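As a warm-up, study this chain.
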Amino acid sequence: MIYLDYQATTPLAPEVTTAMTAVMDHYGNPNSAHRIGRIAAADVALARDRVMAALGRDEGRLIFTSGATEALNMAIIGAARAAPAGRRRIVTLATEHPAVLDTVLSLRHAGFEPVILPVERDGLVDPDIAEAAVDDRVALLAVMQVNNEIGVIQSIDHLLGIANTWGVRTLCDAVQGFGRLPTPDADMIAVTAHKIHGPKGVGALWLRDGSDLPPLMHGGGQEAGLRPGTLSPMLCAGFGVAAQLAVERRAGDLAHVEALWTRARDLFADWSVNGSIPQRYHGNLSIRRAGLDAARLISQVRTVALSLGSACASGSGRPSHVLKAIGLKDDEARGALRMGFGRYTRIEQLEEAAALINEAAAMQRAAA
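Now compare it with the structure written out below.
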C-alpha cells in the first residue's frame, strides 16, 4: 500500500515507538507522590518540555489533552464562558475544521453570535472583511494556520494583529503547521501528536500567561486544574519525541516535501489545484479534474491510500464545506482528491501512485 494521506494521520516514527515502549514499563500514576509515580511524572514533564520547545515557547502553560479536537473545544468554550458581558461574538472562517466550526455554532444556545467569514477562491480571507468583522464586541478569533483539506496557509499574522488591536483573545488550530512552520503568536494554540509521526490519542493546548480558562470537565486537579484525569506517560512520551524529531529534522523534512511537491506537480500537470498555489504547505496536494467521480476512483485504486478531503467528515455524508467555501460547484467538488506526503514518502512511490490514479481517471473519461 502506498500511503498518501498525511493530512489524516502520519506513520509512527520508529524513534517514537522505541520511546513509548521504554516508558510502557513506567506504570506509576504521574500524580502519585511515591518514587514510581515520580518516575512517570518525570516522563510527562520531559514530554511537556519537548512539545513546548517545538512550539518555540518558554513561557505559558501546555495542557495535555486527548487530541486537538478536545484542545479546541476547551479553548473555544472556555473563552466564551470567560468573556466579558459585552463581548458576545465569536469570529472564525468558513474553511475551519469541524472541531472549530461546530463548536462555535453550538455556542448560539449560550447567547453568542457566530461570525463565519467567507474566503476567496484561493481559500484566503479578504483582509478588509476580517477588519470589518473584528471589534470590541468579539470574544474570540479562531483561525487555522494550514488548512487540513487544501493546504492553504492563512494570512494568520495579519489576522492576529487585527484581533490584538481590539483586545480580542485568539486561538490558532496549528495542527497541520506544527513542526513545519513557525508557530503563530496566538493566545491559545492547539496541536496534536499524530500529525507529526507521533501516537494518536494525545494532543495539547498551549495557553499564554494570563489566558485563564474555566475547566470543561471536573473531577481532579490535573493539568493545572483544566483537564482532570490520569495522563498516559507513554502517549505523552511519544508526543514529546515526535515533537523533538520534528524540530531536529525540519530542514530535511521540508526539503524532501519540496522535492515531492515539484514531482507531483509534473505528474498531475493537467489537474487543477484547489486553493492558493503560492500560499500553501507543499505536503498537501488537493487537485480536481472535470467530470471525474473521485469517490469511484479511490475505490478503483485500492493500492493507494488517499482521500477526498477531511477524514473527520468523511463518514458524515456531508459534502466538503471547504471546497464549497472556495466556490467549487458540486460537480467540481466531486472530482477532487487530496494527497498528502512527507518524511517517509519515496519519490518512486509517488510516481507509481500517480500512474495508477491517472490511469483510473483516463478510464473514467473513456467510459463517459
